[in-house]
Amino acid sequence: MQFTQEQCQMLRTPKVIALTNKNGMKIILTSLGASWVSCIVPLATGKRDVILGAPNMAKHMEQGVYLGATVGRVANRICASQFTINGQHYRVSNNQGNHCLHGGKDNFSYRIWGILQPSPQKAVFVLTSPEGDQGFPGRLYIEVSYELTETNQVIIDYKYQSTDYGPVNLTNHAYFNLAGEDSLRTALEHDLQVHADAYLPITHDGIPTGEWRDVTETSFDFRQGKRIGFHFLQDEEQQHVGGYDHALVLNKTLTDGVQTVATLGSPNGDVKLNIATTMPALQLYSGNHLVAVSGKSQTYTTYSGVVLATQFPPDAVNHPEWGEQYDSLVQPNKIYTSQTCYQFLFWYLYVIA
């Protein structure tokens, strides 16, 4: 879904908010989609924006690639846009052929969220999704908070509660380019390490086959770290979808929200990003469908950025055999929380008065 000009005029004007820390790092957020639209790190060589974003709010409304958005109710894909819970069959909105992607045609990335700023370094977004929204059961209440710490961490906390049984899988869809969103260096030139022993094979339209496959001796083995472009498109799995768009199952001994589960490094090594999370999987997406997307400083093209989205595995609601740890199903009136922390490591820009 993309907004028409008339719809844009009818919408309440989205709010934009900036969080800063004492080191000179700054992130910019918007209430449209509870989105993370800018991340400026103060390097010794100058300030650098390391996530992709639209040049203005009008263009942000037009883009359909989820730039920095909070996506849901269910991130990733639901096969054939249907599932069954306690004998009740549900059909939800389809927006990728016959399948449901990131919550359907009118998913959370298109909503204007309420916003609060309790401190200069924290913002809280709130949204209520009504019963039957996009076909999903239950009324869902969500809070998503962003905090920028003095140690250059961007901590995203998710809190939600539903009035009925149903799947919920929230994540952030930021595209990272640690060389700078204005750089011609691509996601394929970044170094990546992910502590994941298995990945989910998928069909041509990105739906998991149900198998969990050992990453050993496959292109999906990032345990020791390697350049994303190494082994790129050299197997049928990647060729199905034009690159990486696969869930990596994280080492469950590390998903405590404190230990690092993944590290992304810039092409020349001057910026690193460590990720910690309480979620069991990470969707690695190499930006395969970034085609002529209006960006802050240039037009983004294929592989301009990489998404590292922490979440439950895709289509988990249709695979109870994967186990409770990987199940996105919530119980009524129970509060659920999750957290993902992005810590940026870099040489500072010192300003001499």
Care to give the gist of this entry?
The protein is 5% helix and 38% strand. It is mostly beta strands and 353 residues long.
Walk me through the topology.
Blueprint: H1 5-10, E1 16-20, E2 26-30, E3 35-43, E4 46-49, H2 57-62, E5 70-71, E6 77-78, E7 82-85, E8 88-91, E9 100-101, E10 114-119, E11 122-129, E12 140-148, E13 153-162, E14 166-167, E15 171-172, E16 175-176, E17 191-194, E18 196-199, E19 213-214, E20 226-227, H3 236-241, E21 245-250, E22 262-265, E23 271-277, E24 281-285, E25 293-294, E26 299-300, E27 306-311, E28 329-330, E29 335-346
Antiparallel strand pairs: 1-2, 2-3, 3-4, 5-15, 6-9, 7-8, 10-11, 11-12, 12-13, 13-29, 14-28, 16-27, 17-20, 17-22, 18-19, 18-21, 21-24, 22-23, 23-29, 24-27, 25-26
Could you characterize the architecture of this molecule?
- It is a single chain.
- With 353 residues, the protein is mainly beta.
- Helices cover 5% and strands 38% of the residues.
- It has a nine-stranded antiparallel beta sheet, with no helix packed on it. A six-stranded antiparallel beta sheet has the order 16-27-24-21-18-19, with no helix packed on it.
- Strand 3 (35-43) and strand 4 (46-49) form a beta hairpin.
